[in-house]
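so my prof wants the structure for this chain in the tokens format not the other one, which i didnt know existed until like an hour ago. anyway here's the sequence
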Amino acid sequence: MSVSNPGYPLLVPGETYCGAGRAAAVLGAVLGRFGARVAVARGGGSYPASLVRDAARAAGVTLVELPPQCREPEADDVDAAVALARDAGVDAVLAVGGGSVLDVGKAVAALAAQDGPAPVREFLEGVGEGRRLTRDPLPFLAVPTTAGTGSEATTNAVIASRREGYKKSLRDPRMMASVVILDADLTRSLPPHRTAWSGLDAVTQLIEAVTSRFARPATDALAWHGLRRARALPAAVHDGANRPAREAMLLAAHDSGRCLANAGLGAAHGIAAALGAHAEIPHGLACAVALPWVMAVNAPAVGARYEEAVAALTGERVDVAGAIRAVWTLLRELDIPRVSAVPALAPLFAEAALPGIAAACRGNSLRGNPRALSADDLIRLLRAMRDAEHPLTLL
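here's what i got, hopefully its the right format
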């Protein structure tokens, strides 16, 4: 694959702690190093409140709880959370939750440290005024409770506005987490469908990173490693109490985040962002419904890479058609529907809507796609996702 800048440094979190029970063991000691007041970004019911409170008490830290984040973050959510953190004068931000929670925490850590209050919209790629961070973000500590986005290892926060129809990133290399704690026990309550959706986000990121125009040897190594770990996805979906499977998927997701931060992604994530900007659809599900179709479109450019990726994911050697078929079969096994079976997506796949959705696919992710896709190419791809019987019809 081509490399835009082979000398660019590999961006990774400052410290990473990994293992079952590690959150309870180290969070208090870690919190105590970053100041007296820490903002906490969290999600809904799976938030380990007692663990966080006990850690703060042990560290002598005052917690400032941000509003619970129970949806993919919108600009208004971030602006409200930043205002609360600034008013409280926090020294650091802790995020405990899924990718949406981690993205809010990252955005708060970045924007609360800037000189004056400004809406997050002004900093978003392709949306606002192109403002840049002028000060280093506050320290950001990440404890993921899902295994999917790998957001704890990325340098961007994905922010949407359903009102304005965008889903874009706040991005800066300094937004990398200072500390990450990977504790698979915190993911075991995730229900099967959310385990499947989040896990397929990780699989999509790993496959797209290894075929990205910006892939390089270091990210390839992470991607192959992550894909081998992701063999555990069906086991994690079918038995949520399976600790080895949960741990393997948490590490696969973390690998996928490190790949995203350093190699970029591709058209499946471009499509997922467009769908998520206009419909209530979980990000991982949006990635999953797009992945095999994008693989088929990209196959002429990177077919052998797909063969290697699926060999790592499944342990079986197949040709490029077999690789696409294997991913399609995995989606069926995990009950991933066609776009035509997702009611929220029906308006987006109406013929008159396709040009607008194709235009919305042109975010940062599409830059890494191994094959240049025109507006007409994207419309044909979206139409195939809606109408074709199988991705192999695109080969």
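also thought this was worth mentioning. The domain at 15-186 is CATH 3.40.50.1970 (Rossmann fold).
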